[in-house]
Amino acid sequence: MISDARPAIIGALLLTVLASAGCPSPRDQAKSAQTITVLAAASLTNAIQEAADAWSHRSGVQVRISFGPSNALAQQILSGAPADVYLSANERWADALAAEDHIQQRVALLSNRLTWIAPLENQAGIADPSEIAKKAQRIALAGENVPAGIYADQSLRTSGIYELLADRIVRGADVRTTLAYVERGEVDAGVVYATDAAISDRVIVLGELDPTSYDPIIYPAVLLTGASPEAAGFFTFLQSSEAREIFARHHFVALPTTAGEKHDAGRP
């Protein structure tokens, strides 16, 4: 007996019609479902979001990003939180991850600068940083364990004015919170990264802090142990010319890097 082939033929035709109509194949569906997790310093919010969007559009892989204080994000990783890529605003917290063997690859990706800012209204009438000690009653700095706060503390101590200002300091959980304090006029002045000051139309820049008064600001990018191949692709993209252009638009200084540079296990 000859079997009826019509059901098979109809099924094949339906598959062809669905494919031509743009319905995703199982392989395409799997690709679209791929997601990597990135933990990034708050000061990188705008730049990393734009870079992630550009890479996702190209790769089809979604990037889930959590922004926050570098120290808190590092502690999450040390406590076992799942993540593929970590971007810190200083090397201290990347070093902490390296000490616990959480790093697969690492590069020094970006640099930044510190600047004094005041609210747009500037009710204290501060003309430049030399008047802050005299006119500012409340001064916003990032937390003492947050990179922006560490750098700011170093600068104020090196300049010999920390003790003079100590009882006026208000701490933000991260540098974006610090920026918000100044924007809302809750303080008379604050110290943030130059990149943060550049994105706000609610503050005025009083002047940069002396870059020799604090450690060089280095943003390491870290590919974490156990990261997926897709995460490795994003890690490499962050070092590309396209990503460097994105970072430059957000006023970061992109450092010379070698894509995929191996982490030096002997690094302190």
Automatic annotation (TrEMBL):
NCBIfam families: modA
Residues that bind molybdate: 43, 70, 148, 175, 193
GO biological process, one term: molybdate ion transport
Endpoints of the signal sequence: 1-21
Organism, as annotated: Blastopirellula marina DSM 3645
Cross-referenced InterPro entries: ModA, ModA/WtpA
Protein name: Molybdenum ABC transporter substrate-binding protein
Pfam families, A to Z: SBP_bac_11
Keywords: Metal-binding, Molybdenum, Signal
GO molecular function: metal ion binding; molybdate ion binding; tungstate binding
Family membership noted in the UniProt record: Belongs to the bacterial solute-binding protein ModA family.
